[in-house]
Write a structure and sequence with these properties.
With 233 residues, the chain is α+β, with helices and mostly antiparallel strands. The chain has helices spanning 15-23, 50-57, 119-122, 189-229, and strands at residues 2-9, 27-32, 43-48, 66-71, 74-85, 92-99, 106-115, 127-130, 134-139, 148-151, 160-162, 172-174, 181-186.
Length: 233
């Protein structure tokens, strides 16, 4: 998804400037341009409409949305780098953007979407445990997937899907460790506890049984020794 956002340069800094901007319906933001490794970020302070930024963040592509940022008659492609919300009101307080080089790959977080109902849930009474809900991928800015689908229809009890099991794509490659578990079908905790209790009870019952079986042999051996010690008439 692409979006358009208007920005205005700002000269002032500090809390008073931030309050003034918010009172006027805008929030402070910074646009970071492309820089070489080892150089300090060259941020440009701007002011933007928080409602427009929130609309972008709440879209399907979220923070991965490509934004056409309009600033002083010019236009550049940016993405949201970071943002700050008020912990009480959840209003947007600040946002950071970074300019994109459209011919250079970037690393982004992409959500995982589960498709289907596992066999292990439908027929075997298991539960689907959704462990990792997003992974990092590397791709060009125009090839960022909105989400990655994981089909769990054939997943049986105690089976799982890891990052290495995902279908490959020519447009992006995974950065997250291939052994990272995404989803697996597990036994419900109540049944798992019952099975553990039954196993422990069976194991405990086996010990007295073995001891009971050994007791006659000891007694028999004792009687035999006494009979051998008895004097002959």
């Amino acid at each position: 998804m692409d979006a358009t956002l208007d920005a205005k340069k700002r000269d002032g800094r500090g809390k008073n400037e931030a309050r003034r901007l918010r009172a006027g319906g805008r929030i402070p933001a910074v646009v970071y341009g492309a820089r070489k490794e080892g150089q300090a970020p060259n941020g440009v302070p701007v002011a933007v409409d928080p409602k427009e930024v929130l609309r972008i963040l709440h879209s399907e592509s979220g923070a991965n949305t490509l934004i056409n940022l309009k600033l002083e008659g010019g236009e550049s492609r940016v993405m949201v780098r970071d943002y700050q919300l008020d912990p009480v009101t959840h209003q947007l307080l600040h946002a950071d953007f970074y300019q994109l080089a459209m011919d250079k790959a970037i690393t982004v977080s992409v959500p995982i979407v589960v498709k289907g109902e596992p066999v292990g849930v439908k027929q075997q009474g298991g539960l689907l445990d959704f462990v990792t809900r997003e992974i990092q991928v590397q791709c060009l800015p125009t090839d960022i997937p909105e989400h990655i689908d994981v089909d769990v229809t054939e997943l049986a009890l105690h089976q799982s899907v890891r990052v290495k099991d995902l279908a490959t794509s020519p447009k992006w490659k995974t950065v997250t460790d291939g052994e990272t578990m995404l989803v697996h079908v597990v036994m419900p905790k109540a049944e798992e506890s019952a099975a553990t209790t039954e196993a422990a009870a069976a194991e405990g019952a086996a010990v007295p049984a073995a001891a009971a079986g050994a007791e006659p042999e000891v007694i028999k051996k004792g009687k035999g020794e006494k009979e051998e010690e008895a004097p002959k008439k």
